[in-house]
Write a structure and sequence with these properties.
560 residues; alpha+beta; Beta-Lactamase; Helix Hairpins; 2 domains; rod-shaped
Length: 560
């Protein structure tokens, strides 16, 4: 009867069956007891009234004297028998009989429609009770071999006899039986209706619910292609319509989620590819930045060495200036101490030789400085190229970050900072290149001046040699030598001033290289941090791709 344990149909049937059973049984009992009560109160008194009426006539027509005489006289018995038969016919009772106790024995004195006389027949309990109490007594409806009866018993005063008037109670019995049968039929109908009606109602209610359950189970299994078949317009129909609407919305949502998952997979693949490319670019930029940092360190060391050499050159030039001043002073004294000419000429020869050596050393140092400045210019060119490459890489990184959208915003900031640092490095390199060019020009002028000094020294050497050979011409040449020495002193002073400028420029170059090296190291550190961030972004992108693929696998379980 029930297909599922704990189903709604079972609950509906049980929920209505028990009250129907209870009401049916209660109504049947009420009907039974009410009917019996009606019989007892209305029908039975009328029945007993008829018996009592007959008994009253018997009391008048059958005195105790006649009973006593009938016990001893057959004729009196016949008289008594005629009386009871007449009353029976008159009142329509079933039977009138008289029982007597004679010497402790129960004897049937007279009975209607029978000529029996003093036949031994035991009295029933009701007759004995009436005889003992002396009170009239109605019996219950009873059944014997003659039928169904109800009797009224009366003990005749002054005798041991009991008159009983019996009436056919078949109709009463049938009436009570009909009440019982009707009550049982009502209970039976209640049982049948209690099963059939709730089952019909439950089936009527649960059939669309069963269809709805089957529909929802199909949806739960992922099949969203089915359509609910409930056509009722009640709450269940509205519920089915709501389920259908929910299924359609769920189907659309799954389609959108599937499309979004495809887009996420494609986007994550593209993002992973872009992130890997960007990671390679950042890695290359890091390597290039480290190389630039190493080159900057080397250039800084070379610049420091150049600075030391320039300081030495400046010291030598200052010595030359000092020596030139002394030569001028000594030349002024030549005119006053001609007598010491030989010794002074020898001293002049020594001084000129020293000047010649200093000039040669200065020329060599200046040439070395010129060649090193050429090397520095090449290094500056490399720095400029590297800065251009870094700027180009930063531009590409900014483009990739812009393509990455919100996720590449941080990398875009780093790329902008790298590009700024690269531009600053390029500007610093250009400044260094300009300083190197100035230094080369100064070096070239120094070389030319040194060459001129060398020529002057050689010329003065010739003059001094000639003076040694022709000491007589010394006084004539003193003025010319003094002028030449002053010219040399002025030139040396100019060289000294130029060397001071070169030294200051070299100081600036060393400081710029130190700053550029620090910036390059900062860029390298930032690039390494960015590389770590890119690797994390690649890992996150791969995780996103995995989750998107898992989502697509879950969505494939649905049929839409």
């Amino acid at each position: 009867m029930f297909k599922q344990k704990g189903s709604i149909r079972k609950k509906i049937v049980l929920g209505t069956l028990i009250p129907i059973y209870f009401i049916t049984i209660l109504f049947s009992f009420v009907f039974y007891f009410t009917s019996i009560r009606i019989i007892e109160v209305n029908v039975m008194p009328e029945f007993e009234k008829s018996l009592n009426f007959t008994m009253d006539e018997l009391k008048e027509k059958v005195p105790d004297r006649l009973i006593k005489l009938a016990l001893d006289n057959k004729n009196q018995h016949n008289k008594l028998l005629n009386i009871v038969n007449t009353l029976k016919e008159k009142n329509g009772v079933e039977n009138i009989s008289i029982h007597s106790k004679v010497n402790g024995e129960d004897l049937l004195l007279a009975t209607t429609d029978s000529a029996d006389y003093l036949v031994a027949l035991p009295m029933n309990a009701d007759k004995n009770q009436a005889l003992e109490t002396g009170k009239p007594l109605f019996s219950d409806i009873y059944k014997d071999e003659f039928g169904i009866h109800k009797s009224f018993y009366y003990a005749i005063p002054g005798t041991d006899s009991v008159i009983s008037v019996s009436q056919d109670a078949t109709s009463l019995s049938h009436l009570k039986r009909a009440v019982i049968i009707i009550s049982l039929v009502m209970i039976g109908l209640g049982v049948v209706l209690g099963i059939a009606f709730p089952s019909f109602i439950a089936r009527k209610l649960t059939k669309p619910l069963t269809e709805l359950v089957r529909y929802t189970e199909t949806i739960a299994q992922g099949d969203l292609t089915q359509t609910v078949q409930v056509k009722s317009k009640d709450e269940i129909g509205r519920l089915a319509h709501s389920f259908e609407h929910m299924k359609n919305e769920l189907s659309q949502m799954i389609k959108h989620v599937n499309l979004a998952a495809d887009n996420v997979v494609n986007s994550s693949n593209e993002l992973a590819y872009s992130a890997e490319q960007m990671s390679d670019v950042v890695n290359q930029s890091t390597v290039a930045t480290q190389e630039v940092s190493a080159t900057s360190d080397s250039l800084s060391v070379a610049a420091n060495q150049n600075l030391t050499a320039l300081e030495q050159i400046t010291t030598g030039i200052q010595d030359i200036a000092d020596s030139s001043s002394k030569v001028a002073e000594e030349t002024a004294e030549v005119s006053e101490a001609a007598e010491q000419g030989s010794r002074l000429i020898n001293d002049s020869m020594d001084g000129i030789n020293a000047i010649n050596d200093s000039v040669q050393a200065s020329m060599e140092i200046t040439q070395v400085l010129h060649s090193r400045s050429n090397e520095v210019e090449k290094i500056i060119g490399m720095i400029t190229d590297i800065s251009d490459q870094i700027n180009l890489l930063a531009l590409n990184a900014a483009i990739e970050a812009a393509r990455a959208g919100e996720a590449g915003k941080g990398f875009s900031v780093v790329a902008s900072e790298v590009r700024n640092l690269a531009e600053q490095s390029a500007v610093s390199a250009n400044q260094i290149r300009k300083l190197i060019h100035d230094m080369q020009n100064d070096s070239r002028r120094s070389v030319e001046a040194m060459a001129k000094v060398n020529e002057d020294v050689e010329r003065e050497t010739v003059i001094v040699n000639e003076a040694g050979a022709s000491f007589g011409n010394i006084l004539e040449k003193i003025s010319q030598i003094s002028e030449d020495v002053q010219s040399v002193s002025a030139t040396v002073q100019e060289i000294s001033a130029g060397s001071e400028q070169i030294l200051a420029s070299t100081h600036d170059t060393v400081q710029s290289l130190a700053t550029s090296s620090g910036n390059t190291q900062n860029i390298a550190a930032s690039m390494e941090e960015q590389l770590a961030s890119m690797e994390e972004m690649v890992a996150t992108t791969e995780a996103l791709n995995t989750m998107a693929n898992d989502l697509k696998e879950e969505i494939r379980k649905f049929k839409v």
